Amino acid sequence: MIYLDHAATTPLDPAVLQAMLPWLQGRFGNPASDHAWGQAARAAVERARSQVAALLGAQPEEIIWTSGATEANNLAIKGALEFRGLRGAHMVTARTEHKSVVDSVRQLESQGLRVTWLKPDAQGLITAEQVLAALTPDTALVSLMWVNNETGGINPVEALAPLLRERGILFHVDAVQAAGKLPIDLSRTPADLLSLSAHKLYGPQGIGALFVRKRPRARLSPQLHGGGHEQGMRSGTLPTHQIAGFGEACRIAGERMAEEGARLSALRDRLQQLLQAALPGLHLNGHPQSRAPGILNLSFEGVEGESLRASLGDLAVSSGSACSSATREPSYVLRALGRDDELAGASLRFSLGRGTTPAEVDQAAARVIGAVGSLRRIAGSGTAALVSPPLNAHGYAAPVWAAFSDPRHAATLPEGAIAASAGSPAGALRLRLQAELDGRRIVRAAWQAYGCPVTLAVGEWLAGWLEGRSAGELQLSAADLRAALEIGDDKAQCALLGEDAVLALERQMSLA
Ligand SMILES: *Cc1c(COP(=O)(O)O)cnc(C)c1O
After folding, report:
1. pLDDT value at position 313?
2. 8 A C-beta contact, residue 99 and residue 148
3. What CA–CA distance (Å, rounded) separates 158 from 185?
């Protein structure tokens, strides 16, 4: 397994685990308790608070613990606007924000908040001018991420913060992908609210923080009510082990930032160069310069996203394919920067991290080059050799996987073979069947297709089925195909495409 998905989550640093273990093995106490146990836990929590603050150039008392950045983003946005009052309020944010910002803002929008949703430029960035142009006398809050989690693009947060301060507008920054990767100094960058998550910087999952500025004071309405912990802004017993781990993770990240940033930038550039040298038709999703180390997002022309993802097996990367997300829509971030559905779907985000080696980058590049070449050839637009995907990592049914992973009939037959197609030539799904005849009998069959793994499996299965059959023996329904390949309702259209292709082939054979 090669893990290039550090923007989704990072492994726990061994030193972080060591900082957590005492609080899971014997040492315990509620940091809110008065007695010695409580005091010891409180001391660990306060030490961690200083470590997190130090990474940001903030004061310890400006750090509020949350369960993660999703909660920190919710607290910042809903808390700030609820405190001000939604009536007549306006805010500015971008379409490329993380879902936890987008959906928090949408929720308030449904309650009457007026929102300007900024559209990024073709390279995925929001400019300071764009933000300034969107301000109105009623603008209470601007929320803009520091580094985009899909493209790695760096928004002009440092330039924007003083301009918003001058105008007295609260500025919230989702800094999850920036913290520990780029220098952040909140003593010089006057953002008011800033969200962090431990598991994006080698800390544990389930803990995050919101920086809430003291001078001038950013005011929030709490979103969780209870014991009044965290200065009343976030009630709930503090998880000492998580917090101790988060603090240690920030300490390590600060220590290694410069060196690790240079290393990751070089590895990312190497990956990009290897892919670009071997594959035409690549599109960089993001800004070529203004980008954080470690994230590379590319779209691949002429391949279908789900098949690309399925072909990568033992390579853990994030895919823009609709099937990789709970919502089944291709990446809204890539759509916002102007990619069509097909290119947005056929995208991969590689995110490199502390454990990534040059050898892994080379192997990952080779795997992707093989997969893209193979799928382009299957779609009829390439000449590369076919390579078998290594691993059924996404749980395709056994017969689908068997056919998809061994596409021995994927080919073009010589002149004189009968050919028939189904699907739309430019659409997201197409299948072409070919048959070489001896009299009325098919002696050889071949297929080409553009589509998901199930479509490709249908092509492979059909070619095997066709061989040896005569013109009169080509009765096959979509239901037969679904049964043979165990195709579910969600992929019924792939079986229909197969049925159409067989009908079309039969028609061509009867004309021949
Ligand atoms: C991961 C991520 C989040 C959410 O963080 P959690 O702690 O997992 O809730 C928010 N914003 C960005 C940019 C992220 O990458």
Report:
1. 84
2. no
3. 9
Q: Are residues 173 and 114 in the same domain?
A: yes
Question: Which of 224, 254, 284 delimits the end of a domain?
Answer: 254
In this predicted model, what pLDDT tens digit does every residue of 16-67 receive, in sequence order? 999 999 999 999 999 999 999 999 999 999 999 999 999 999 999 999 999 9
**What b/e sequence results for 170-191 when a residue is b if at least 16 CB atoms lie within 10 Å of its CB, and e otherwise?**
bbbbbbbbbbbbbbbebeebbb
Q: Is residue 452 among the annotated active site residues?
A: no
Mean residue pLDDT of the chain comes to 95
- Return the ligand 1 atom nearest residue 147 CA: 13
Mean pLDDT of 134-158: 98
**228 and 264: one domain?**
no
Number of domains in the chain: 3
Given 254, 270, 289, the domain boundary residue is: 254
Question: Which residues fall within 8 angstroms of residue 378, CB to CB, at 6 or more apart?
Answer: 386, 407, 410, 448, 449, 450, 456
Kindly give the number of the ligand 1 atom that is closest to the alpha carbon of 71: 9
Q: Which residue range(s) make up the domain with 178?
A: 13-254
Who wins on pLDDT, 162 or 330?
162
Looking at ligand 1, which residue's alpha carbon is closest to its atom 1?
8
Instruction: Please state, in angstroms and rounded to a whole number, the distance separating the CA atoms of residues 94 and 142.
Output: 9
- Are 471 and 340 in a shared domain? no
pLDDT at res. 145: 98
What would the pLDDT profile of 295-315 be if each residue is shown by its tens digit?
999 999 999 999 999 999 889
- From 145, 149, 184, give the residue whose CB has the most ligand 1 atoms within 8 Å, as the site to mutate: 149
Q: Categorize the per-residue pLDDT at 424 as very low, low, confident or very high, splitting at 50, 70 and 90.
A: confident
CATH number of the domain residue 226 falls in? 3.40.640.10
Name the pLDDT band for 324 (thresholds 50, 70, 90). low
Which tens digits make up the pLDDT trace of 268-305? Answer: 999 999 999 999 999 999 999 999 999 999 999 999 99
350 beta partners: 296
Q: Is the dihedral of CA 452, 455, 459, 464 positive or negative?
A: positive
Cα 5 to ligand 1 centroid, rounded to whole Å: 13
Regarding whether 182 and 57 lie in a shared domain, the answer is yes
Classify strands 114-118 and 90-94 as parallel, antiparallel or unpaired.
parallel
98 alpha carbon – ligand 1 mean position (Å): 7
> What distance in Å separates the CA atoms of residue 157 and residue 101, rounded to the nearest whole number?
16
Q: Distance between CA 97 and CA 145 in Å, rounded? A: 6
Binding-site residues, ligand 1, Cβ < 6 A: 68-70, 98, 100, 145, 149, 174, 176-177, 197, 200, 208
Residue nearest to atom 15 of ligand 1 (CA): 149
Take atom 9 of ligand 1 and give the residue whose Cα is closest. 70
Q: Is residue 65 within a helix (H) or strand (E), and if so which, with residue range?
A: strand 63-66
